[in-house]
Amino acid sequence: MTEIYLDNAATTPVSDEVLAELTDKYKNMYGNASTLYGLGRESKAVLEDSRHVIARSINADDNEIVFTSGGSESDNTAVIRSAEAQKKLGNHIITTAVEHEAILKPMHYLEEHGFRVTYLPVDEKGQISLDDFKSALDDETILVSIMSVNNEVGSMMPIHEIGEILKDHQAWFHTDAVQAYGLTDIDVKRDHIDLLSTSAHKINGPKMLGFLYRKDGLKFTSYILGGDQEEKRRAGTENVPAIAGFAAAVKTLTAEEKQTRHARFIKFKQQIVAGFTENEIDFAINGALDDQTSPHVLNLWIKGISTYVMQNNLDLDGYAISGGSACTAGNLEPSHVLIAMFGKDNPRISESIRVSFGRYTSESDIAGFVTATAKIINRLKKRRGQ
Question: Which of 45, 327, 332, 367 is catalytic?
Answer without folding.
Answer: 327
